[in-house]
Amino acid sequence: MRRVFGAKKNKEPLPTIQDATDRINKRGESVDEKIKKLDAELARYKEQIKRTRPGPAQEAVKARAMRVLKQKRMYEGQRDMMYNQTFNLDQVSFATEGLKDAQQTMSALKSANKELKGITKKMNISDIDSMQDEMMDMMDISSEIQESLGRSYSVPDDIDEDELMGELDALEADMGAETESDAMPSYLQPEKEHDLQPELDLPAAPSGHAAAAEDELALPPVPRAFG
Predict the structure, then answer these.
(1) Per the record's keyword annotation, is Cell inner membrane included, yes or no (predicted)?
(2) What is the sign of the dihedral through the CA atoms of 61, 64, 68 and 70?
């Protein structure tokens, strides 16, 4: 059967937008190269026309230049057409990518919406309000307990403020007296200059005959030992 009808050929995959864009860009580069060569040739003809005198030779150069200029215009038209095709393909590519992004966004939103519904079904707003009320009551009870535990039992409520101020003044006076008694005693304090003067008035040393009399009354010297 295959020999009679032939085998079924596999279809080639359709070109993508990127494939078409790449192919057109390659063609555009080839056309740009051709236009550059034609520009260089026109520049040479332009110089020849300037150097050539009017006449048949100059007219021949002008004819060749016109032919090259027509080719350049044709290639420029093709290049503009390919640029327009590339622009259209880019627009289609941007639109396609935008639609793909929108599709992914919608899928993500649907998944998130489904997940949120599952979570909210497990939660009840009345239970949350009840829990919040219980928490507020527990906080109030805790405050009352702390206030009760911090109450003082040794201070009566009927104390006179004037009486307290009098006791405070007496306490300050006692503290001042203790400070004065804790000062350095008088025998350790440095004495003033006029207090030391009487003690420093000692009798003068004897001189002359008085000194000789004292030497006569003195004891004889101790003899030295001879070894």
Answers:
(1) no
(2) positive
